[in-house]
Amino acid sequence: MGSAGLEIKEVECLIIGAGFGAITLLHRLLKEGFDARVYEKGSGFGGIWQSFGKISPSGSDMPGGKSSGGTLLM
Questions:
Q1: Within a 10 A sphere around the Cβ of 41, how many other Cβ atoms?
Q2: How close are the terminal C-alpha atoms of the chain, in Å?
Q3: For the region Disordered, what residue ranges are annotated (predicted)?
Q4: Domain ranges of the chain
Q5: Rounded Cα gap, residues 70 and 72, in angstroms
Q6: pLDDT tens sequence across 17-35
Q7: Is 11 left (phi over 0), alpha (psi -120 to 50) or beta?
Q8: N or C: which terminal CB in the chain sees fewer CB atoms within 10 Å?
Q9: DSSP string for 7-73
Q10: How far is CA 39 from CA 13, 74, in A?
Q11: Cβ–Cβ under 8 Å, residues 20 and 48
């Protein structure tokens, strides 16, 4: 456990920010078999997509991932 009481997990690839490019990179890394994670400080993901309304009917959900307290974990 870290000093803030958070579990520390080692990953091969850590992507900061969940914009369009980050989601594309995550998809490619996972497809190649890497252990990759995306962390987003905001309440959702998609970067500029947010300007065009909701990405999915449920708002910020995405297959294979979940939005939790401002951090997107995939």
A1: 10
A2: 20
A3: 55-74
A4: 13-73
A5: 7
A6: 888 889 899 999 999 999 9
A7: beta
A8: N
A9: PP---SEEEE--SHHHHHHHHHHHHTT--EEEE-SSSS--GGGGGGS-SBTTBS-BTTBEEETTEEE
A10: 11, 8
A11: yes
Closest CA to 47 of 18, 67, 6, 9: 18
Triad 1, 64, 44: Cα angle to 5°:
75
Residue type, 57: P
Q: Which two tokens stand for residue 54?
A: 């909701």
pLDDT band at 2 (very low <50, low <70, confident <90, very high): low
